[in-house]
Amino acid sequence: MSASVLEASRGSDTATPASFEALQLSVPTLAAVRALRWQAPTPVQVRAVPLLLAGRDVAVQAQTGSGKTAAYGIPLVERVRASAGGLQGLVLVPTRELALQVGDHLRSLGQGHRVRVARVYGGASMAAQRDALRQHPHVVVATPGRLLDFLRQGVFRLGSVRTVVLDEADRMLDMGFLPDVERILRATPGDRQTALFSATLPPEVTGLVGRTLRDPVWVRIQGPVPTVEGVRQFYVEVAEQDKLQALRVLLRTEAVQSALVFRRTQRGAQKLADALARKQPTAALHGGMRQRARFAALREFASGRVPVLVVTNVAARGLDLPQVSHVVNFDMPEDVETYVHRVGRTARAGATGIAITLVGQYDMEMFDRLRRVVGTRWERHPLNLYARSP
């Protein structure tokens, strides 16, 4: 299933309509928007809403805070036929907190359409959620694990679903939910409309798009790439199988006070942290960990007792870690913006920092793209694992 359209835009040059009326929304939806005091649609809403209203499958890359919930929420409530009854819309999210937030947004947007919304997530009473599902909601917002529990119990079915939204797909990947997501999608009609939203596009997410979306339109909303002040940026060319050895040497020879080491997946982060921990204090931080273990890892790192924290992109979002002296890209970032966000974890509050990217033989395409952007600011690191002794 190939993407037929590519829409790439930057926030700085995207033409935004002056009002939501320009999106040709119904009177109840416009009333809901006014009640929410939204002044004008954001770039992601401008791009995605008309496509979703037209029934297209859409894959959207947009950052958190870009207005993506309304970008799929508005078309979702517009397309629900309240008089028809039955479950028509399904929104899959990675966390309880997001399920609550999205559910609140959809209830507000759909009030004038008499859209009933149920929220299904772990860590809460199954009995109460089972009762909510038996009230025949039009839209369900769910985390994958809890939704599968109810499907196995036969509480409800997905055969009438017309639209599925996968929100924060990269975070669901990081938390190990993608197999569950695909099981859920197989229980929905093949002719459903599907929308995927993700801040980053690792290969596993683009693979999911190819397997599950029908002739999708790609929408990329990117702000201007920021500069990273106060960071010396290095790269090390090394064979893929030697990356672990190179990292160990760097951590031993650099003046590392505290280092964030980035990996692409939670399994990779845990495996690398376990390997490093055999020789020096190291912790992991990823979505597959229990909340208590995540807090413990952060406390150990912030206190300095554990100077190395191996993280994934998604797990590192929103962390306030001002004392990071080094950032190491063990896995090449997926795109330029991901690189900038990773590197920006050091040199906070006017401090200086060092960022080092390990470049293996499979990283050359992204390496060339980054080198064109970073330019002369990217220095070759003096580390050479393959130098012969004199």
Structural features, described:
- The protein is 37% helix and 19% strand.
- With 390 residues, it is α/β, with parallel strands linked by helices.
- It has two domains: 5-222, P-loop containing nucleotide triphosphate hydrolases (Rossmann fold), CATH 3.40.50.300; 231-380, 3-Layer(aba) Sandwich (Rossmann fold).
- α3 packs across α4.
- The N and C termini lie far apart (56 Å).
Q: Descriptors for this entry?
A:
alpha/beta, 7-stranded parallel beta sheet, disordered N terminus, 2 domains, Rossmann fold, 15 strands, 390 residues
The neighbouring-strand order within the major sheet is 1-8-2-7-6-3-5-4
How many discrete domains? 2
Quickly give the structural class: alpha/beta
Termini distance? Answer: 56 Å
Short description:
The protein has 390 residues and is of the alpha/beta class.
How are the SSEs placed, and which strands pair?
Layout: E1 5-10, H1 27-35, H2 43-53, E2 58-61, H3 68-79, E3 89-92, H4 96-110, E4 117-120, H5 126-133, E5 139-142, H6 144-152, E6 163-166, H7 169-174, H8 178-186, E7 193-198, H9 203-212, E8 217-222, E9 231-237, H10 243-253, E10 259-263, H11 266-277, E11 282-285, H12 291-303, E12 308-312, E13 326-329, H13 336-343, E14 353-359, H14 364-374, E15 378-380
Parallel strand pairs: 1-8, 2-7, 2-8, 3-5, 3-6, 4-5, 6-7, 9-14, 9-15, 10-12, 10-13, 11-12, 13-14
